């Protein structure tokens, strides 16, 4: 019995130690900036980073001379089918979280376990918006044409596509009137979260970002 308790104690100690190290590294690495001095003076496109307090979306204009997102991520894919929308927010995350957890109260242990331990699949979330306002949780960023094209490529590479080159739509009914979901590449885990994806999106466009972060605060602290 004593031996069993010793083993259990070591396991618990190991778990606590891992959590402490993870939180410490998450804090330190998220405070190390990259691209902190963007020397590009061109401001061709306005984008936004937007958080709901946990998850970060990259918000871009639906139509510009450089990209018309509605050609593939169509208005017909959302319940409202409202073609007057002006912006689209992109987020990447665990498919189970997106489809089965519209509210935190709906979170199941199995969903969280699968996400954390690399057992689930991922999805792209598109949110159509009529307008975007700057707030503490929504930051405006002006980028060049070249930077936007790099961001476009990054977002496009996150989708899975069918044989016709269209994003694979997921039939989801858990969100609002202006949301759609698509099959995505990569898997969610402790070291690659929805916010890691958004942080890497900013890196791809040569914008201010954290060296690495699993949280939205690790992104937004560089825009305060």
Question: Could you write a compact summary of the structure shown?
Answer:
The chain has helices at residues 2-30, 95-100, 109-116, 145-158, 194-204, 217-220; strands at 33-34, 45-51, 56-61, 87-94, 122-129, 138-143, 169-170, 179-183, 209-210. By secondary structure, the chain is an alpha+beta fold.
Task: Provide the descriptors you would attach to this structure in a database record.
two-stranded antiparallel sheet; globular; alpha+beta; 32% helix; 6 helices; 9 strands; 224 residues; seven-stranded antiparallel β-sheet
How do the helices and strands line up, and which of them pair or pack?
Blueprint (H helix, E strand, L loop, with lengths): L1 H29 L2 E2 L10 E7 L4 E6 L25 E8 H6 L8 H8 L5 E8 L8 E6 L1 H14 L10 E2 L8 E5 L10 H11 L4 E2 L6 H4 L4
Antiparallel strand pairs: 1-9, 2-3, 2-6, 3-4, 4-5, 5-8, 7-8
Protein model, in words:
This protein has 224 residues and is α+β, with helices and mostly antiparallel strands. The chain has one domain. It is built from six helices and nine strands, in the order H-E-E-E-E-H-H-E-E-H-E-E-H-E-H. It has a seven-stranded antiparallel sheet with strand order 6-2-3-4-5-8-7. Strands 1-9 form a two-stranded antiparallel ribbon. A hairpin with a 4-residue loop joins strand 2 and strand 3. The longest helix has 29 residues. The chain is globular and about 70 Å long. The mean pLDDT is 89.
- Domain module count: 1
Give the neighbour order of strands across the main sheet: 6-2-3-4-5-8-7
| Content-based structural category | alpha+beta
Number of helices: 6
Low-confidence runs of at least 5 consecutive residues: none
Which shape, going by the Cα principal axes? globular
Main beta sheet: strand number and arrangement?
7 strands, antiparallel
Q: Mean pLDDT, as a whole number?
A: 89
